[in-house]
## 1
Amino acid sequence: MPKSKFEPEITYEGIPASPGIVISQIHVIARGFSAPEVYEVAESEIPREQERFRHALEITKKQLIELQSRLETLSGDAESGIFEAHIMLIEDRAVVDRVMEAIENRWQNAEYAFYAVMQNFLEAMRRIPDPYLRERTADIEDVSQRVLRNFEHDDDVRQQSPEDRHILVAYDLSPSDTASMNRRHVLGFATEQGSVNSHTAILARALGIPAVVGLNGAVIDIKALVPAILDGYTGKLILHPSSATFERYKDLITKKEKVRSALDAMRDIATETLDGHGITVSGNIELIEELPLVKTSGAKGVGLYRTEFLLLNGEEMPNELEQADAYSRVARAMAPHPVIIRTLDAGGDKLPVEPLTDPEPNPFLGWRGIRVSLSRPAMFRDQLRAILRASAEGKVAVMFPLISGLSEVRRSREMLRRCMDELEKEGIPFDPNIPVGAMIEVPSAAVCADFLAPEVDFFSIGTNDLIQYTVAVDRGNPHVADLYRPTHPAVIRLIKRTIDAGKDNGIWTGVCGEMAGDIRLTPLLIGLGVEELSVGPLQVPRVGQAIRSLNHAECSAMAELALKEPRSQGILDLSLDLAKKHYGNLFD
Ligand code: PEP
Ligand code: MG
């Protein structure tokens, strides 16, 4: 793909979110409430454009009616009124007429005409110093986004060919967008929003889709169909690559391919350090579709099954038997290796378990993780019974997310015990000794790990959340991404404290956050005493080889020094030095 004479090479720098290199053409999609693409429609196309607007409104109305009736069932009449207000808004004659006029008189495409009308409306409302009206702007934004998402795109008009293989460029992508991507066409993606630990990025790594996120302000300038290179290793999107750049990337692809096949050849060799210390490497999964990848990666089990991704298939959790079927499939596929099933971790930045009538001011500190399960006992019971059913089909463990203290562990275990009693009475087989773990991802849990350890069978440290809560940095916010430091001394101390509390009580500690897959940090985690690393399937071979190249005693001595080091960078350097000394080739 040599450079065209007239187009200079342009490089956009973002955050590397999922490794891999793609050489292809760009396809841009407009999403969210960022300005949609604007273009002029031909006079003859005006009626069709107006019809597209009416159609988007109709679909939106249908969705809102459905949401409203679900909410009525869940919480009674009172709160379903919010969707009534949304419906009234999209039926508001003043809004509809103004959009129709803009299409007719200004020849604007329907999405843009609608967007412009709503922006004006919002602007006017924001100027009114009335808290009630200000709150209503959130409703308007919400319903406007919904309408924008419901426009059916006409590829002739947009002159794009998303059927061809391409690099997708978008303002933002939700985890469900990522999971439902057509992998034959989308070779990689780049987004303006997002961060390395967002669920979209995690999913991209799990599915092996190269990705760059946090390309601030770039999407608006990027045009469809231009030739490009997406570098998911360094976080670059290069438009109109020069011949030299193109050749350099072709060489890089060959080099990476060589490293990958060398690692594949070693996947069945035990993951033991040079001085004979075994560390389990297991895989994280979100979707059952990832199982073949985990199995071929050489992982010795699933260390984290994020069950909330079952919500992607519908708007609520599947019932007990449907869940049991999914969990049993994973358990049978991985046997004789264990599968750690994490109970629903919804809410916060993740998928909602039900529409919230009253948006939370601080979702990360709100109704998420185990808190949701404990306050929805019927739903929790379905899930625990499903997990127990699967425990008869393979080696299954259960763990609870976002534990912040002892009472949540006790209440969860009590619920599990009741489910066991029920199944026993019903004559349904399950493993009565199913291991029960607590995720350590809230600082209070790490600080009190000595109280929690006697009550569980293992700890799994969720560093993604542990870091964000320890240093008060939103894991998904690109504006503070540089403050999100896995090697912050406070994080390292909390990890150490958790592992020590586990050891004192005879239980093992693993790490299942993204930190576990970062081979710069393998020496540090091993040195601190971690016994299991659960990582994205694509990272398994690399982490395995890192372990085989290290000396446990040397890692422990380094970790001792790291615990005395006050700077994040200093800690990172100590670990990285050891990593480079023993497996520098894995960084190529
Ligand atoms: C974590 O927080 O590190 C973790 C593994 O859970 P999740 O990324 O699903 O929040
Ligand atoms: Mg977490």
## 2
Amino acid sequence: MMGSVSELEPRVLVVEDDHGLRDVLARGLREHDVVVVTARDGAGALGAVRGAGPDAFDAVVLDIGLPDSDGRDVCQALRAAGLTAPVLFLTARDQLHDVLSGFAAGGDDYLAKPFHLSELVARLRVALRRSAAARPAPSGLALDPTTHALVGPSGTQRLTPTEFRVLAALMARSGEVVRRRDLLAAGWPDGARVADNTLDQYVARLRRKVDAAGDAGRSIGTAHGVGYTFT
Ligand code: CA
């Protein structure tokens, strides 16, 4: 017997499109006294978190290869929606690039398929122990990873995938100055070299879209020479 993941039955959201694996994970985790909620795609994951609230889950197990969206985009959208719980990515593509861009997207750990359930339980246990850092309250703006849209009280703004990633990185650390190099890593995860003012042009466009989406008081500020901040 391995015992439970933590003393208090943790609530874990499992996002996996493979029906068989999803079942195995859900049943296996429940045997370890985890309360499991499952979703089969990015829209389902976002729906679960928006429906239950960003504090409803103690951890998220998130497949990167989902049918409707990239798990990394889903992670960013969950972070932007206020999720602070640790996110553990599952991927069949165990390449360094996936791992690094997964962390840039707000993931906390990473498990390559195939893996043994006991390894997932051990990683979850560590992640739950580590997750204490509080993040600021979410705004009235939300990111939709399936359409790369910014949804606000005054309407929906279409974003390019790069705009989506840059804004998600800012929103995930709302109130903090996010350094230029972190925004470049988030926006261009393949490590493409971009001109120095490219990031500023993207942010200028995002600033207009954030204003148009219309959550009064929310805006992108500039920390000259350092980075940007979403407040
Ligand atoms: Ca998959």
## 3
Amino acid sequence: MERQVQRFVSVGECMVELTGSGPDLLRKGYAGDTFNAAYYARLALPASWAVDYVTALGTDAVSDEMIAFMEARGIGTGAIQRLAHRLPGLYMVHVHEGERSFSYWRSSSAARQLAADEAALSRALDGADILVVSGITLAILEGEGRQRLIAAMRRARQAGARVVFDPNIRPRLWEDAETMRATLMEGASAATLLMPSFDDEATHFGDGTVAATIARYRAAGAQDVVVKDGASGVTLAFGGEAIHVASEPVARVVDTTSAGDSFNGSFLAHLATHGNPRAAAQFAAHVAAHVIQHPGAIVAHDLRP
Ligand code: ADP
């Protein structure tokens, strides 16, 4: 008999986001790449899917508020570990003459310990039909956390899950470039579906073309690859020949934060329910085009597939 509920599980760090909202006033939000993807997947998935976020938080009031924020958006928080001696990470958005920059306070955040307890991590990922991990998730993990999470990704893949990896390359989160590249390729080898951004891959792996990015990740062991390339659209390599799907023209881009994350979550949700990569990419491009016309990472929409 088929199971009633299917599980979308995303693993990483959600931070407190502070954005200027007038002189000396800050507005509080919550965001982070893998959380954003879970949020957009939840908006597009039917009720027969559970969407869970897996991270570690503190036992403080801000951690409580973040959990309430997730729950209010239909995201399951039952697998979130609460660590008494840690706090959530935080970042502040600065806008200067239209250019955004970010300051982060995340170097000792609770999420860095999300893979410290192997049994808790295994329980959290158990039964996932779709598992989402990013290069940021791997970058922030302390101690043996990276290897533990990669091993858990391999187990999920063996158990038949779609294991999704977005390298989301952020050199500043890594101790050195060599470790970064080696660990990202190891993460990729544990995944079934890679969702990289071409400009990052070109910069940090020296790929000359989208085809080179696809070939590198295929050689590492990924079955399927979706290469995102901003306004130029995406290239889908599922099984046979690669196909290109255009982005949706946007007259005025307001804020590109979370373009890739909203694309990932929407694409995976559509693919899970309709099974057609091209249609999933068209839907995801539609959502991402909406998201970049609004400020912030978490944008409400009613664009159900
Ligand atoms: P990331 O945020 O990971 O770098 P991209 O910049 O490649 O990701 O963008 C992800 C998706 O967002 C693209 O595939 C496209 O659908 C959409 N997108 C991004 N920038 C634009 C743009 N300027 N115009 C229209 N769509 C865009």
## 4
Amino acid sequence: MNLNIGVIKGDGIGPEIVTEAMKVLDRVGEVFGHTCSYEQLLLGGASIDVHGVPLTDETIEKAKACDAVLMGSIGGDARTSPWYRLEPSKRPEAGLLKIRKALNLFANLRPAVLYKELKGACPLKEELTEGGFDLMIMRELTGGLYFGERKTVEKDGVLTAYDSLTYNETEIRRIAKRAFDIAGKRRGKVTSVDKANVLDSSRLWRKVVEEVAKDYPDVTLEHMLVDNCAMQLVKDPKQFDVILTENMFGDILSDEASMVTGSIGMLASASLNETKFGLYEPSGGSAPDIAGKGVANPIATILSAAMMLRFSFDLDREADAVERAVAEVLQAGYRTIDIMSEGKTQIGTSEMGDRIAEFIR
Ligand code: IPM
Ligand code: MG
């Protein structure tokens, strides 16, 4: 099979980690008899440097022509990078939001799994994570606060900023269905997270999620307020199977969940629309402080590539092989600095990619 993959290396550690994921994909191609063709796409700061804007219409069209897009990360250090002297709508993050919207990638899946080999990197007490945990955050990605109208105005000499949070029932229904579908294939539990004790958008969220739940008698639904969820994630992460939530809550909770797994460098993600197309990226940021040093953890990007094989190409065997290779490399004691612990072998970004590629059989 020929895999026609768009590649957004992006900014910061993006180019380094994507290079490793491509290495692993090429190896998958060799072993399983596929060819990967890559189309390089510019997004974020890398696009600003060339085109003056973080995303061009041409890039959107090129992305649409691919079967799937693999991405690194975008953005820089807001205190020092010239990108952040541009108006907000021209900064790197605006490009990422725009491509998600343009491709209608409303369903963002962020799995947080504690590998038994990384128990030591998990900051929680051992008794809380005995036996590991495996949860999936289903984050709504194209609505809510990040896409609402916003403005800053001066009223009687006082600056006032507005951001609006809107959800309609169609947006809620389609993401809720995705969450129930996935939960049905996992442990059959959806925890819908909202702030229904305060927000109207959350009250509608709850109502629609309850309607959708009726079509899934085998999946258990529970509701949880977002502040409580933030606490429960560090108190008892094992209670969760699928966490379904709106855009901003999902952004925040997924960073928290990643840390509970040991490092944000381990958290993959898939952003999907109604078709087989998807954008696959690590959940972490561009980490400008370590960019170019060859120390970034490429595992989240490699696991994102595995999600791409599974969801966009239906190549389950290949995806399993990548995930198994990651586990085996960890078992063999190799670690990047963010997950390093005593007695293990510390290696850099590119060596981690080499090791994982070697373990693909
Ligand atoms: C993420 C990131 C982005 C988001 C930023 C860079 C706009 O934090 O993918 O979680 O908030 O969605
Ligand atoms: Mg985030």
